[in-house]
Amino acid sequence: MTPLRLVIADNESIIRMDLREMLEDAGHEIVGEATDGKRAVELTKKYKPDLVLMDIKMPEMDGITAAGKISEEGIAPVLLLTAFSQQDIVEKAKGSGVLGYLVKPVREENLFPAMEIALSRWQEMKELEGELDKARDSLELRKTLDRAKGILMDAYSISESEAYRRIQRYSMMKRMTIKEVAEAVVRSGVKKK
């Protein structure tokens, strides 16, 4: 596994110390440690680590709430650590956007595979978000382009293909993107006949 930058959040100093030692021995860097969820969120925003390891039961803000805030902002993947494996806690954890869940005591043979899976899922989510953004942009362009062609077709009594050719030609001539030309046509709302 490539060395990672991590934030550790647990209100028990012995657990934080054990995790730190285990992770540093494996070549990872601990960029922040927190004893409560609120501080964990602050450190995560500040350092933008590759991964956050966080206990569920902490003062000020519990780990599930903190994980939800971190996930909501898309800052880093969160792997929850807990001494509890009750179903209601698991359900709350699933709803918070965490990418893994380990029951204490945490051992290397459980931690490192869970970290790899969490990072892999995080990467997949980021790629899907990128694809979704591209699809939204493409759809938005398609809508704008269709509106622009419609405006030109009405204004100049031309076919759809001719309207598109004019947009294309103007785009090349003015060194603008087709999207920029289409948006300009829509904004101008050409009303000639």
UniProtKB/TrEMBL annotation:
<feature type="domain" description="Response regulatory">
    <location>
        <begin position="5"/>
        <end position="119"/>
    </location>
</feature>
<dbReference type="InterPro" id="IPR001789">
    <property type="entry name" value="Sig_transdc_resp-reg_receiver"/>
</dbReference>
<dbReference type="Pfam" id="PF00072">
    <property type="entry name" value="Response_reg"/>
</dbReference>
<dbReference type="GO" id="GO:0000160">
    <property type="term" value="P:phosphorelay signal transduction system"/>
</dbReference>
<dbReference type="InterPro" id="IPR011006">
    <property type="entry name" value="CheY-like_superfamily"/>
</dbReference>
<dbReference type="InterPro" id="IPR005561">
    <property type="entry name" value="ANTAR"/>
</dbReference>
<keyword id="KW-0597">Phosphoprotein</keyword>
<dbReference type="Pfam" id="PF03861">
    <property type="entry name" value="ANTAR"/>
</dbReference>
<dbReference type="InterPro" id="IPR036388">
    <property type="entry name" value="WH-like_DNA-bd_sf"/>
</dbReference>
<dbReference type="GO" id="GO:0003723">
    <property type="term" value="F:RNA binding"/>
</dbReference>
<feature type="modified residue" description="4-aspartylphosphate">
    <location>
        <position position="55"/>
    </location>
</feature>
<protein>
    <submittedName>
        <fullName>Response regulator receiver and ANTAR domain protein</fullName>
    </submittedName>
</protein>
<dbReference type="InterPro" id="IPR008327">
    <property type="entry name" value="Sig_transdc_resp-reg_antiterm"/>
</dbReference>
<feature type="domain" description="ANTAR">
    <location>
        <begin position="125"/>
        <end position="186"/>
    </location>
</feature>
